[in-house]
Amino acid sequence: EKEEEEKREEENMEALKINDNLQDMETKVSMEQVSVPSAELDFDWSSIDTSELPSSYKRNSLKEKKLLLIADHFLQQYTHLCPDRQPLFLHPANECGVEKFVSTTVRPTLLPYTELYHWEGCASFISDYLTMEPLQSPLTPPSSLYSPTTILKYQRGNCFDFSVLLCSLLVGAGYDAYCVHGYATREFCSLDETLKLCPLLGKPEEVPKKEMKKPNKYRVKPPPDLQSKFELWQEAKKKAETEAAQKNKEGEEEKEVEKPEHDPLRGLRVHAWVLVLSGKRDVPETFFINPFTGNSHSTKDEHFLGIESVWNHKNYWVNMQDCRHGCKDLIFDLSDTVHWDVVLSGIDKPQQLLSDEDEEELSDNEMDDTQEKEEGTSFDMPPSWVAPIQISPREFESRCCEGRKVTLYKKSKLEKWAPYLNGDGLVQRLTVYADLERTNVVQVREWFKNREDMLDVREVNKQTQLITDYFRPGHSFNLKAHTYMSLEPDSGYSMEFYTAARVDELQKRVGSANEMTEYFGDRDDFLHIRYIKFGRRGKKVHMAGTRTDSRPILQIKESFHRNPAKPAEEDVAERIFLITEEKIQLTHHHDDKCVTVSSEDFFNAAERDGTESETSLTLEMHNTHQGRPSKKGKSLLHEYKLLQELTVAEKQLKKQAQQSEAEVLQILSTRKDEEANIKLSVSIYNTERYKETTQAKKETEEEDLDYLAPFLIQIGHTEKLTKEQARHVRDKCLADLKHRLVNRVNIIQAR
């Protein structure tokens, strides 16, 4: 009797502790609801207009009423057998206050957009298009579930609204998708991404380790190192210890700041997401989709803490497995009645991928028995009461709610805009910070769309002030990337080009105030590097509205790849034109049978009066070193012809260097004009916006022609011109002006 009394007292004490904990949880929940931003709670769902909704929204058909009775009967049996589990989310009320079975709220839809044919596009669109609203109580599912059409109309909803809409699109696209009612962590339920890295940052690529070359025993030994290795080792050890201690301190401080606070409601927070089973659409493995972020997760992810039930447009399944260890040990074979209890047992079961051994185990008698049972208890799921889901091209293009969406990540911030909302075509911006408080900006990365100058991405390093622009194919100068600090000619730059679109196979051009280096691709002459050194700027020349400063060329150096068709001693590897010193240096490729390489030097090689007849060659003007001394030297006549070829090549290289410099200045001036007058292009397939832009262009052209007609009459056309005649005269004048400018540029370049 004493033992029984003690047990009763212990049970009473535990009950009191549980009640106290529940009261504390309720107060914390109320505090959480108060801490939700007011912008997310301003919208009043009770004030929406439901008068124009179809009749299926306002009443149930006979089949739906029968389905509700079956669901109530199932719920009674479930609560009797599992009294400790939470109530199921079976038939919440819709926007009209009518109870609807959750499976009939899923409306499979395939929209006419290629992006929505894949799960990544569907999940990304839903996460961007809708605004997240928290549940009224984080411990219980919502009392209502609105139709996907209403959610799309007002562009907001909770996790259950997100999941039903996403599941409707995925099932319509052919995926074996299900809505999930379960439990998740606080970060997933509240869409808190501040402790996660932005997916756009990614992990840095690992640099492959270089293989160590075998030591050559014939290599010249370096001079002995007279420093004490022990002292160097001691200094390196102390430095490594201090750096490690400093890193550990910084890591511990950062971990303390980054470590999430203890959640007293862990395992009790209700959340909804989407389950995609393997099989259909060549999905190799079952996975989850968080509808708030649009990201996929493994079924063993620790953020998903348990599952109550899943459903699609065909049936409803209750999880009968233990979720003490989360979802990592769950079996997602919905046809297994031991692990999953189904509401409508006569409905076709989901198709699972069976192995050959499993198919052999299923005998014909077992298949016949299951078919007889299904025929006896069959009940067809009523069709969805939701109206067809429709998204207009303008709505699909807008993506973000109110045109803008901001997401905070760990040490970064991601902003998204709808296309054509910003005048510069900006659609996405990622700002990277050095601290967790997001105050010190390190890097800014911007994405653009529909730019006529083909600008795609811009990266700005706030520490070095370096700007890198990346272009799509189609730029007027075939630019691929442009790195700069300023668009002025004297500042440094690096330009990359689309090699396939250029005749000279130019890949990259790097320049500074007095130097320029060009890198080439696969050329017929095997040239791959050209280095040009300039002197101080001279007089300024105006050409075609741009300004070029003529700079004297001091040196030109070219490097060539090996030409296997020539012997190594005749194949030039490098040639240097020292113009101010009147000297030309040739270095040939290394022959495997020789220790040194062959080289040739020409002194006083520059032409004094500019005529080829005065080019001469003496023994004092020529110096040769042969890598293979046994081979007979070249004749003086051969060297004289080579000198003539080099003088002609020097002239051509000077012209090419001037053309390269002029092209750089033209690119810089064009980039200035493109940034000053940004224009956005409109695709002809975007019919609505294309009509608007073409109409606006016609109106501006008509205004220009109205101003142009009186001017043409004054300069000689006495009769009144029609708009077509004025347009023809204007085009003719512009073509004549362009022809004159081209001739003027050619004359200046020739001078």
From TrEMBL:
| Biased composition range(s): Acidic residues | 355-372
Segments for region (Disordered) = 241-262, 354-384, 606-633
Q: Which GO terms describe its biological process?
A: cell differentiation; flagellated sperm motility; spermatogenesis
Any idea where the Dynein regulatory complex subunit 7 C-terminal domain is? Answer: 719-751
Stretches of the chain forming a coiled coil according to its record:
1-28
A Pfam family found in this protein is CEPT76_peptidase
* Chief place of localization: cytoplasm
A GO CC annotation given for this chain: motile cilium
State the compartments where it is located: Cytoplasm, Cytoskeleton, Flagellum axoneme
- Write out the entry's keywords from A to Z: Cell projection, Cilium, Coiled coil, Cytoplasm, Cytoskeleton, Differentiation, Flagellum, Spermatogenesis
Q: What region holds the CEP76/DRC7 peptidase-like domain?
A: 270-341
- Domain Dynein regulatory complex subunit 7 MORN, chain residue ranges per copy: 402-683
Q: Which SUPFAM superfamilies match?
A: Cysteine proteinases
Domain of life here? Eukaryota
The similarity comment for this entry is: Belongs to the DRC7 family.
What is this protein called in UniProt? Dynein regulatory complex subunit 7
Species annotation:
Turnix velox (Little buttonquail)
